[in-house]
Amino acid sequence: MPLHFTDSSSAGAFAAHDWENPALTGRHRLPARAYFFGYDSAELAGAMDRRCSRGFVDLTGAWRFRLFDHPARVPAKVLVSPAVGWDVVRVPHLWQVDGYGRLQYTDEGYPFPVDPPRVPAENPTGVYQRTVVLPEAPPGERVVLRFDGVESYAEVYWDGAYVGMTKGSRLSAEFDVTDVAHAGVNHLVVKVLQYSDGTYLEDQDMWWASGIFRDCYLLTRPKAHLADFHVRTHRLADDRAEVVVSVSTVGRPEAICEVYDGERLVASAPVAPGSDATLVVEGARFWNPEDPYLYDMRLIVRGGDGTVEHVPHRLGVAEVTIVDGRLLLNGAPFMMHGVNRHDHDDRRGRAVGMARIERDLHLMKRHNINAVRTAHYPNDPRFYELCDRIGLFVVAETDLETHGFANVGDLSRLTDDERWQAAYVDRIERHVLAQRNHASIVMWSLGNESGYGRNIPAMYGRCTELDPSRPVHYEEDRDAEVVDVISTMYSRVSQMNDLGEHPHPKPRIICEYGHAMGNGPGGLAEYQRVFETWDSIQGHFVWEWCDHGLVATADDGREYHAYGGDHGDVPNNGSFCIDGLVFPWQEPSPGLLEYKQVICPVRVAYADGVCTVTNRRWFTGLGDVVVTLETLHDGRVVGSRTLTPGPVPPGGSWSESVQLDVAAHGETHLTARVLSTAAHAWAEPMHELGRYQVLAADRPRRPASAVPTGAVTARAEGTSLLVTTPASDRFTVDLLSGGLSWHSHGRELFQEPPRVGFWKPLVDNHQQEHDELWAPRLLPLMQTSTREVSWHERDGAAIVTVRSRIAPPTLGIAMQIVLTWTLAADGVRLAVTGEPVGDYRDIVPRIGLSFAVPGDLRRVDWYGLGPGENYPDSRSAATVGRWHSTVDEMFTPYVVPQDCANRGEVRWMTLTDPHGDGLAVRAVDSGPFAFSAWPYSAAAIDAARHRTDLVPQDRVTVNVNHRVLGLGSNSWGSEVLDSYRVRFEPFRFALDLRAVSATAPHHTEGLAA
């Protein structure tokens, strides 16, 4: 497709109706061309002069900038000459993030009245100025000005002359400025309006912000040069690859195509403009995400004036086909383990540098992710090059979403309006032309949440005309009327199983699921079992990659991350943008660690003395994999060995007999760690792919030797019961409230007495349960009323029974509680039973015990699941062992504070001070418990909206829970599965509590139930 240049109309030609008319979307804007981005250097973040074989002038960096509140109020003189008193800003940037104007976050609602194609007259407008010094150009050379991202509408002026305009914020635009550019000092002005008619097509779930937010630069091209090229590959028999190349050139010269494997030329052919050239690579190496092999392709154009243009391209031999309803890459089926990724930097918003993008992609690879959906717009052109290089499938989505029309009851309004068809088609056309030569792109996506109508088939038609080699996806085409890959969002596990059991004739993916807002998502393992059961389900993409928090500073100088409403923005959707697997500062969350394990590409199982290793990769063997096996007795490692499966093919298994040293008493676990010996740009050798564990044996423990401890003495004084042990521990029971205090080793162990509770700080993924079940029943306001406290002595111990009722105000539902304290010389045993009253039997956040201990008891040791945070439906990444941490380290720094730090399947845990003194809790009878320990109170966590709202206390809050509700992802996804629900039903549990001292060890072996 030949270049079509901008017009040269004057600045006075601009009028409001020009940019409000969707039919004019493509009038002055050029399509981006992939050949500008064929790097032959690994220096992706630099070496920008390699974009083009001739010249490159970087226009990023410092610009003069002013912000106006209305386009009509921009003084004409600022378009033709520099002005004093302007601010200097860095480009790329978003002016609201840099403190100009106001940030606003909405999920789907437009931030202005819905009146398409019109936008508010008060339209924030930024004016950028920069001088450009150019050398004398050779005769016939063309100068092209390129922008890779400007939001949302821009006009370009050169020395006061109007050059053209562009819309399509996340699509690249080019302007031929040859006729206005000259040797010496040139004056470039760009006028950017925050809103245009194009904004109606750009209602993605993210911050509303504007500016020149990606790179801008000048490219010089010789008189005869490459205008465009398109390369397709096809796998032939005997590992031969067919490479088909077509070109268009300016000046009609012939091009030469050469393909190199390293320094070795493996194929070459002339390519005449308007026709195809076919090259054959013998013994080809085919691109896939597990082995992203790239050849060096070079296109050489020789002009009649002797100039030569070299355009490099990294060529991946990757052919995507659909056969019998299955997606194939080079003839092999595959599954995409993916994420949805927005551009986001916590200090620069969508003005994301390449170093951060590269770190994003490396983190994905380190966590076994092999696919990314560019939600919901094209990325920086270099993003696709990185995906080619490191190996990531890309679902390449264009810049289209009209979600805000759902608020007026007509999501499909623009999508089914033929007056907008040119704008819709323009967006997929520019996207496909720009990126169609990238091996990593596995399918195109026509956009997101824009309903369905006549403009979708038009987009599909243009997309397949420009690139018939790839399938097309669009989730809102629910019946797959035109698209090649059918998709759903947030389908429940049972629904996905039904869809797999009754497959559609076309391949299926779930383009969004597992909403990762705050603490979560839960239930990923159950989804994965369904995905792996049905061949027709070939991709799943967690929503989403990164929290969209923006750095802000509290009054005391501490940093926190802002979200909707923190900038006075109304309306807003609050913290709904804090929904990623990665924290804003690019640290993996517990949810990402869980996802990594769930999609681990190597499976390890052990049964009947045989260890089996299964290759869940799609394209490569296990020649780089070793498996380390550790035998644990009651959580302590007693032996290890390493297995080397060898080159097990995709889908294959390998087995070896493994004799375990089974403990005579207690638990024996086998833990397998899967390691890769390969070195990559994104990981060092011996990085862990995943881990598995099996309980190999659980034998009765040897009865503990009786240790004489003596009897306690007990007496009532007024409303208190005083109990003293031979070791001088002292218990005090309030005979009115039933509260227990415990003085041991010179301190009060309980800063707040243990209490039974059902509430815990709300997690984002339980918001709907809160709104529909808990808030109407006032569960957060439940009150404890003690009805009876009695006591007696038996077998040298004091037995205290506390009967109470826990109930919310105004309602008749309640839980009748009986606590039985056995206060003995060697510690405390607590037995708890609960019997519900009333008609409520639905879910509650937890059933358990909470209390506070002194603030210096901050070292935590436990025998149970670890080392990281885990919950009943998010525990795949955890294994049983002996772990230690601190209260502060265990507290997960969610942007919005909420319940966290849970460790499950715990046999025993201790909280101790630096000297080793403290408290131990042991499970008895009712099985393992879950616990968390926080440097804050539950009420403080619940009330906090940001991390800086939390102030550490001089006590530690401890929660020892009989049962904890699973996480689910119901902030916008699946509810907690039934098997992980905790209901307001009868229960019982028991615990042993002991004071521990460095001088009198508690012997954790004896604490293991």
Automatic annotation (TrEMBL):
Alphabetized Gene3D superfamilies for the sequence: 2.70.98.10, Galactose-binding domain-like, Glycosidases, Immunoglobulins
GO biological process: lactose catabolic process
Catalysed reactions, as listed in the record: Hydrolysis of terminal non-reducing beta-D-galactose residues in beta-D-galactosides
SUPFAM superfamilies (UniProt xref): (Trans)glycosidases, beta-Galactosidase/glucuronidase domain, Galactose mutarotase-like, Galactose-binding domain-like
Keywords linked to the UniProt accession: Glycosidase, Hydrolase
Ligase in keyword set: no
Gene Ontology molecular function: beta-galactosidase activity; carbohydrate binding
Protein name as annotated: Beta-galactosidase
Enzyme class: hydrolase
Family per record: Belongs to the glycosyl hydrolase 2 family.
UniProt source species: Streptomyces kasugaensis
Coiled coil (residue ranges): none
